[in-house]
Design a protein that fits this description.
about 240 residues, alpha+beta, five-stranded antiparallel β-sheet, four-stranded antiparallel β-sheet, globular
């Protein structure tokens, strides 16, 4: 009887645990945010980033995505990659002072990018879509915050506009953030051409000297053989004369 009661108690506890897990799972589902990938780039350079937009609705699709470029960090060159089934519109604003790009002064900068789905290209429940963008030269700031708006087919709009907090806690609707690091100082160029030429000259000079010594040795050897032959012939003639 005791064993039976223990088995029943364990089964009841297991059932309660499963119910609690299910309730908690439905009460606090994991949320996926709009993000920018990669999350880090270098100041002064160019970067190819992608805004990743997951669909968080169980019944509606994402039909429009708006990304606002930070006003305090304008970028002179912004270009987008075609995304099948989506159109993109750029909005610009005046910048003062101008931005220098490859020696030219740019007085306008892109302020907003808006992607709109056409046909059946909307981001459906359980899916995500990436929107690639090329940016540069990247400004001399520590980060770029891209406030974004996500519009669903049922009219609901999620505003991913909360900036990072100093305490490190993630806000409810965080905006995508691109961290920018300072460029590393370039290494001093190494003058390898001149020493290489000197080495070649030294090697050629050494080879010429060796060749010259070899020829001189060969000539000396031939001369020695000739002298030896003359001496031998003379030696043979002298006994014959005495006889």
């Amino acid at each position: 009887m005791i064993r039976t009661r223990r088995t029943a108690t364990a089964a009841a506890a297991l059932a309660l645990g499963v119910v609690a897990t299910a309730v908690l799972g439905f009460a606090a589902p994991a949320s996926a945010h709009v993000t920018v990938n990669p999350k880090e780039a270098t100041q002064g350079g160019y970067a190819r980033v992608a805004f990743r937009v997951p669909n968080e609705s169980d019944t509606a699709s994402t039909t429009k995505v708006e990304v606002v470029l930070p006003e305090n960090a304008p970028v002179g060159s912004v270009s987008t990659m075609p995304v099948p089934g989506w159109t993109v519109a750029m909005e610009k604003r005046k910048v003062d002072p101008p931005i220098e790009v490859h020696g030219s002064q740019i007085t306008e900068a892109v302020s907003k990018l808006t992607w709109t789905a056409t046909g059946d290209a909307a981001i459906k429940p359980g899916q995500f879509q990436e929107f690639p963008v090329s940016l540069g030269p990247l400004p001399q700031v520590d980060k770029m915050v891209f406030k974004s708006l996500q519009t669903y087919s049922d009219g609901n709009i999620v505003r991913w506009i909360d900036e990072p907090t100093t305490g490190g806690e993630e806000p409810e609707h965080p905006a995508p953030v691109l961290a920018l690091t300072a460029a590393s100082p370039s290494a001093a160029p190494v003058a390898a051409t001149a020493p290489a030429a000197d080495d070649d000259d030294d090697e050629a000079e050494g080879n010429g000297l060796a060749t010259g010594l070899g020829i001189a040795g060969l000539v000396a050897g031939v001369a020695g053989l000739a002298l030896g032959g003359l001496a031998f012939a003379r030696t043979r003639r002298e006994p014959a004369a005495k006889a």
